[in-house]
Amino acid sequence: MPIIDSHALKMVSRSAEQTRRIGMRIGHLLQKGDLLCLTGDLGAGKTTFVQGVARGWGSLDQVTSPTFVLVNRYRRPDGEVINHLDAYRLSGALDAEDLDFTQLLEEGPLLVEWPERIKEILPRQALWVALEWVGDEQRNMLLTAQGARFEGILPELRRQILGGD
Q1: What is the pLDDT of residues 83-92, one digit of tens each?
Q2: 8-162 belongs to which homologous superfamily?
Q3: The pTM is what?
Q4: DSSP 13
Q5: Virtual CA dihedral for 117, 135, 53, 3, nearest 10 degrees?
């Protein structure tokens, strides 16, 4: 199942719960300033994945899609936050800057849905997570590491998620 190269990991999720568990593994490794870019059509599982990331990061808050509020914040018991931005309704990078994109990234990890809409302001160092709906209970997932931080943790993710090196 692991393929491509040392910068990417491809896998198949066979349930919403498995998608959440993969997100939990990633969330556990996140640090302040980390950027996750989530791509995929409506219904591909982005919010389900974020539910796992937030839980793995340590938040017990309910995770919902921020499509209408644009940014949701989830807190850990220690007060740290993870921000979840939905760029679907943004008209471009200027709208993201109006939301103080840099501040969102500095506060804690930042998860961005529809990042292609604001790509010109995104830092180069990020973990891109592409989700593809295959069927009611199946999603293809491609994790692509960009930058030293994520290239460094991809082998750990590969080991945790797939159980191999």
Answers
A1: 998 888 777 6
A2: P-loop containing nucleotide triphosphate hydrolases (3.40.50.300)
A3: 0.88
A4: E
A5: -90
